[in-house]
Amino acid sequence: MHTLCAQLSWSHYCLLIKLKNKEERLFYEDQTILNSWSTRELEKKIKSKEFKNKRDKHNKTVLLEYFSGPLTIFKEEYNWNFLQLDKEHNEKQLEEALLNNIPKILLEFGNGFSFIGKQQKLIISGQWHKVDLLFYHRFLKCIIVVELKTEKFKPEFVGQVNKYLTYFRENKLQHENDPIGLIICKEKDSEEVHYALGRLKEEIFVAKYRLYLPKEEDIKKRLR
User: Fold this and answer.
1) What confidence tens digit (pLDDT) does each residue in 24-68 have?
2) Would residue 37 be called left, alpha or beta, if left means φ above 0 and alpha means ψ between -120 and 50 degrees?
3) pLDDT recorded at residue 81
4) Which of 15, 66, 195, 220 is deepest in the core (most CB within 10 A)?
5) Spatial distance between the Cα atoms of 146 and 224, rounded to a whole number of angstroms
6) Domain boundaries, the chain
7) First and final CA of the chain: distance in angstroms?
8) For residue 125, what pLDDT is reported?
């Protein structure tokens, strides 16, 4: 414990010294001084777990501010120029390249993503289905279903992913939130995506991937 404060009695410190967590101990010390808690009030606050309640509430607030829903988590475009694939690659080659670069993929996806596995098998109506990639997001507390497409976005991709989401939603763990789908295509048209998603805009997200950085001339054109 740091230097004793004259505003607290020895009885206060006898209670505080029993707290092993430094952060918790400092919290109660500061709150006792700010609120002029008696020894009895301090003891009551410790027993009611005031520190844990305030910390949990704070963490939820921080998460809500940092992640104002999935819209702030998923990007419009993912830069995968480190994959070193040919322009005429297929989905299998793309998936294998991603799996060989999981640390870089997680960095590109952003904070909170954890990789679960590839080609996750689901049995629906007696038939096997395979999900390209599965992730878990520790802040959203949900499964992220990722489907890879080495072609331009098509509306039928939404039906496929929505089927997988329904499966995971009905088979989720008690502490989990509803799953989210992410379709990553080689190209996409914003208007086509808008009408294809409809009311599913907060459940399924569509992005495109880039394997090569744009040329200097293209950057200048976009800036104009």
Assistant:
1) 887 788 778 767 788 888 888 888 887 776 666 555 554 444 455
2) beta
3) 85
4) 15
5) 34
6) 10-66, 70-223
7) 60
8) 83
